[in-house]
Design goal:
607 residues; seven-stranded antiparallel β-sheet; globular; disordered N terminus
């Protein structure tokens, strides 16, 4: 289990409506995103490729090594690679059962003729697949919220968190990991320290200009209501100051933002700054609407020790103790194995090493060092500038590499979609998700798409091939079209395509298609039944460059959208959505180029 942290400010992020199974619950809850990759995740072969999760062995029967007939899981993989010490488990561990289950998996791979490789390569490949899945989930969540994870710290907890934390941080480009003391018990421990909260809210749905002078009065009323509810729980004195939340949005939009102003702060300025930080632009000539008010009152929390205290202690390197035979980065090696309880404040452990906590284990990878907080917790710091060296990709078994590259390609397309949805303005894109993002090979054939609108996908490869036949695309070019002769569907579906080059060699193409809410024509919407020509259906955009050698050419698109016989009715919205699409295209180009730099140009083309 992982989360991203910059500096904790004492407040939590909530959702006020969420789904549990088939039921939609309109009650407050902490905003938590999960991915099915943990110690109990089942490792198996699916269609000739290795897969990790989402199925879990659970507590019963549990991993194969628990001796209850369970399947091969990530816990078994870490045991077989020497990253866990069997004697430290509170139950007897059956290593032979884990080896037997792994032997079954290996035989399945051999029957699929996937170039299985050595036992260690397959086992390490399973760990990498799990790490890639977790990193992909964090990237998507971060992009959606406008956060670059490289500037943050990774907090690792759970029994298996410390085994994957360093590699996961490397995949995300992060340089610091925090592992609390009692990391394996952190969720249960947290429940014992949890505060009691009560909420009070009020729906407003009025212009900010109309109600700005009444907001403070309403918020005070809600604070009294929430405080009274908390006092009924027997909590009368130990109550924190109320947390005031105002939900705002631009008039005409569905998406809203929550602002937490201090009394007297300028709401217009706070909202516009937050909106620009998240969406990278400011809509012009739109009023601001107050959606709702919400106040949170909670019991006062007990003081916690700041995690930075270990930094103030004098640093000393841990004395090497006993060693553990461990497989790391393609080789068996004897690494020091330390007991967390025996490491004082400020003591540093230099990787590679293992650190045993009471209920979990920490793998300190090469290039990392761990500094003890003295309570069983650690701060891990990367000591090398380049933390994502994947030069060993060619030597991994084909079954491993196919799954890894599939995840990486899907992750890039998914990141493009998150960027597009986050920065677009129209309801069609932000709420209905009527868009698609894809990667294509140098011949214009579809390689992968994110799980967006499937109706676009059959035409994306045709569109790219027709565009390239019409005019070759050079590095830094981005072409836009909605013309049906170039693989378009109806005119509101606008497509952007860009080539991706590495050292002047064509790596492939990235493309996105999005349904604009307005594209002109004799009637608003799409395909008016009385249209007698294509121009009467809407503005027709033949293939034109909006980026030419990296230079913007927006004036070309603006002329087309405005100067035709039936121009668009919302030019600003069209341009905002096109800029959002361009942001997604550039994100895809950057991510695919970075992947090719890490694993090699030919390796990307091969997979």
């Amino acid at each position: 289990q992982m989360c991203i942290r910059d500096s904790f400010d004492g407040d939590f992020e909530y959702v006020f409506s969420h789904r549990v199974g088939p039921v939609e619950l309109a009650v407050p809850a902490l905003a938590i995103e999960t991915v099915a990759a943990g110690g109990g995740s089942i490792c198996q072969v699916e269609q000739g490729r290795l897969a990790v999760g989402p199925q879990s062995a659970g507590a019963m029967p549990g991993p194969a090594s628990y001796g209850a007939g369970g399947p091969l899981t990530l816990t078994d993989v870490n045991l077989l690679l020497g990253r866990l010490v069997a004697e430290r488990f509170p139950i007897p561990i059956d290593l032979e059962a884990a080896r037997s289950r792994f032997g079954e998996l290996r035989r399945e791979l051999e029957r699929a003729d996937r170039g299985a490789g050595s036992d260690e390569e397959i086992l390490e490949g399973l760990l990498r697949i799990a790490d890639e899945r977790m990193a992909e989930a964090i990237r998507h969540i971060s992009v959606r919220k406008g956060v670059d994870p490289t500037g943050y710290s990774l907090v690792a907890f759970g029994g298996a968190g410390g085994q994957h934390a360093c590699r996961l941080a490397e995949l995300l480009g992060m340089a610091e990991v925090l592992l609390p003391g009692d990391a394996g018990l952190l969720s249960a421990l947290g429940l014992g320290h949890a505060v009691v909260e009560r909420f009070a809210q009020r729906e407003v749905l009025r212009s900010l200009d109309d109600v700005s002078d009444r907001l403070d009065e309403w918020l005070q009323e809600l604070a009294r209501e929430a405080t009274a509810a908390l006092e009924k729980e027997g909590i009368g004195e130990d109550i924190d100051d109320p947390r005031r939340v105002i939900e705002l949005r631009y008039v005409g939009q569905d998406a809203s933002l929550e602002i937490e102003p201090a009394p007297g702060e300028d709401l217009w300025r706070l909202f516009e700054e937050a909106y620009f930080k998240l969406f990278s632009y400011r809509p012009q000539e739109r009023g601001i609407e107050v959606v709702s008010l919400r106040v949170v009152v909670r019991s006062r929390r007990s003081e916690v020790t700041p995690v930075g205290e270990a930094d103030e202690a004098s640093s000393q390197t841990a004395t090497p103790g006993r060693s553990q035979r461990c497989f790391l980065d393609g080789d068996w090696r004897d690494v020091p194995c330390h007991e967390a309880a025996e490491l004082g404040v400020g003591v540093e452990v230099v990787g590679p090493a293992l650190i045993q906590q009471e209920h979990s284990a920490l793998v300190v990878r090469p290039g990392w060092r761990a500094r003890s907080f003295g309570d069983g917790g650690f701060r891990l710091m990367a000591s090398e500038a380049d933390r994502m060296d994947d030069s060993a990709a060619r030597s991994r078994p084909q079954a491993v590499e196919l799954e890894l590259m599939s995840h990486r390609f899907s992750s890039i397309a998914g990141e493009m979609g998150e960027m597009l949805q986050r920065t677009a303005i129209s309801t069609n894109i932000k709420e209905r998700e009527d868009f698609s993002c894809t990667l294509l090979d140098p011949a214009g054939r579809l390689v992968v798409n994110a799980p967006h609108i499937p109706v676009h996908l059959g035409a994306m490869g045709l569109c790219v091939r027709e565009l390239v036949n019409h005019r070759p695309l050079e590095p830094g070019d981005v072409v836009v079209t909605n013309h049906p002769a170039f693989g378009g569907s109806h005119l509101p579906d606008v497509t952007l395509v860009a080539p991706v080059h590495l050292d002047e060699r064509l790596l492939g193409y990235v493309a996105c298609r999005a349904h604009h809410a307005e594209i002109g024509g004799i009637r608003p919407g799409s395909v008016p039944p009385d249209a007698k020509s294509l121009a009467e259906e809407g503005v027709v955009i033949p293939p034109i460059l909006i980026l030419e050698g990296g230079e913007p050419r927006w004036e070309r698109v603006e002329r087309l959208l405005q100067d035709g016989p039936h121009p668009t009715r919302t030019l600003a919205d069209n341009l905002a959505d096109l800029r959002a699409m361009l942001a997604a295209i550039l994100r895809g180009c950057e991510a695919l180029t970075r992947l090719a730099e890490n694993v090699g140009f030919e390796h990307v083309l091969e997979h």
